Amino acid sequence: MTTTESYTTTFRVNQSPEAAFAAIINPRAWWSGAFEGDTAALGDVFTYRYQDLHYSRQEVTELVPGQCVAWDVLDADLSFLKDRSEWTGTTIAFDIVGTGSRTEVTFTHVGLKPEVECYDTCTDAWTALIQGSLKQLIETGKADLPELAGPVV
Fold this sequence. Notes:
Number of helices: 2
CATH architecture: 2-Layer Sandwich
CATH superfamily: START domain
Low-confidence stretches: none
Largest sheet: 7 strands, antiparallel
Distance between the termini: 25 Å
Oligomer: single chain
Structural class: alpha+beta
Strand content: 35-45%
Radius of gyration: 15 Å
Number of domains: 1
């Protein structure tokens, strides 16, 4: 079966949309790996590297405090894939919705679809980062950054 749906996951926290937004735009606090560049202003370009497995250059293309964040992947090199540039042209997006005293965060990696090679490995890594590190950072102000085994996002 072929599908065209991109990977998405959602969680809820007992924090404000502003707290969720502040955590999301600080990926250094919830991703393992090396960063260069800024991530807090529209048009910022940053690079992320994890060991020799993952390199990507991303641009902040959407940034509405308390509502949404999006990063376009301008360039990628995932050394564990046949098509090492598979992420290039995809978008990493966060939608933030406040509902009473709770906030819902929906993460979507637009273009990361079940039919692409990285889907299983990358969705496992994204789930650990989004449902684990990011959610913990929003809830507590601190995230544990475990060293992820194998390829990571």
